[in-house]
Amino acid sequence: MDLENQQRVKDAAEKYGAENIVVVLGAAEAEAAGLAAETVTAGDPTFAGPLAGVELGLRVYHAVEPEFKAEVDESVYEDQIGMMEMVLDVDEIIEEMKNMREQFCKFND
């Protein structure tokens, strides 16, 4: 996650309260999604960005996860994300995101 997006997430969490923020990722690989998820939950693991050492514990999902898919109009989801499901390793992404939430999320439902 780039430094600009880290700052946006940090600002939103400060303005609205971390308990009211949900981050939705769209990375093409599980490892990249996991790194971004770790950044918004446990803090920037590279210690280079605004979230270095900042444990926001935010809820975080990937756009291909069933929890997100259930909240989006089916036709919009198919139009915007459906093709991604065919080319991504969805199961690996889901597993990575689940692990990140279990380890670092402070606001699990």
From TrEMBL:
Quaternary structure (record): Monomer. Component of the glycine, sarcosine and betaine reductase complexes, together with components B and C.
Gene Ontology MF terms in the entry: betaine reductase activity; glycine reductase activity; sarcosine reductase activity
Protein name from the UniProt record: Glycine reductase complex selenoprotein A
A GO-annotated cellular component: glycine reductase complex
NCBIfam families membership: reduct_selen_A
Catalysed reactions, as listed in the record: acetyl phosphate + trimethylamine + [thioredoxin]-disulfide + H2O = glycine betaine + [thioredoxin]-dithiol + phosphate + H(+); acetyl phosphate + [thioredoxin]-disulfide + NH4(+) + H2O = [thioredoxin]-dithiol + glycine + phosphate + H(+); acetyl phosphate + methylamine + [thioredoxin]-disulfide + H2O = sarcosine + [thioredoxin]-dithiol + phosphate + H(+)
InterPro entries: GRDA
Keywords: Oxidoreductase, Selenocysteine
Pfam families listed in its UniProt record: GRDA (PF04723)
Entry's family note: Belongs to the GrdA family.
Spans traversing the lipid bilayer: none
Role this protein plays: In the first step of glycine, betaine and sarcosine reductases, the substrate is bound to component PB via a Schiff base intermediate. Then the PB-activated substrate is nucleophilically attacked by the selenol anion of component PA to transform it to a carboxymethylated selenoether and the respective amine. By action of component PC, acetyl phosphate is formed, leaving component PA in its oxidized state. Finally component PA becomes reduced by the thioredoxin system to start a new catalytic cycle of reductive deamination.
Keyword Oxidoreductase: yes
